[in-house]
What we know:
The chain is mostly helical. It has a single domain, classed as Helix Hairpins (Orthogonal Bundle), CATH 1.10.287. Helix content is 72%, strand content 11%. It has helices spanning 25-89, 95-152, 162-183, and strands spanning 5-12, 15-22, 189-191, 199-201. The strands form 2 sheets. The chain has a two-stranded antiparallel sheet with strand order 1-2. Strands 3-4 form a two-stranded antiparallel sheet. Strand 3 and strand 4 (199-201) form a beta hairpin. The protein is rod-shaped and about 100 Å long.
Amino acid sequence: MPGGKITYIAVENSGINVFMADNPKLQMFDALKLLSKTASDLLIEEQQLLDSELLRMSKLLREAIANLSECFSVMSNQISEQAAQLRSQSETGGTGADQNINALSSQQMSAFESRAVMALQFEDILQQLICHSRQRVEETENLLQSIHSNIEMLIEGDMTDVDAIMEILKTCQAEIGKTREALNLSHPAKQKSMTKGGATLF
């Protein structure tokens, strides 16, 4: 293959730079497409694995909440049974003993209800985070597919056409900007702990 001085485009943080290098046209053209395809396939595969893990996390979380709910139900029944037994044993203790038993039972139930509410709030926040993460995965995957599609639009004659390459790069940059905007739309709550005040926003 004949060699020649080919115009390359480099995209950096400071902008788009143009520089010259000596390389065969077809090799550079094929290498550019191969790089795009390889990077796209790899990153999309990684994103799909992450999405699978997020789905698994959601399933495990639902199971944990179901187990917690069952646990509270069992404890509630036990408290009721214990209160009934104590009430039966203290029939001769008068009104004061009965009031103490009722107060104790009410306090225990209130504590269990508070924990149940916290658990449900925690589950809701985690579900928001999972949904948000999956949206980010989808947006990133769409961006990679878009970049690859734009690179695929290049033809051999474009490799010496700076304007054509610049147009492709501008399109890719615009896609990146739209993706960044989409990723910044949602701001879910972040739960650091199950204690009071553990939820913050970011």
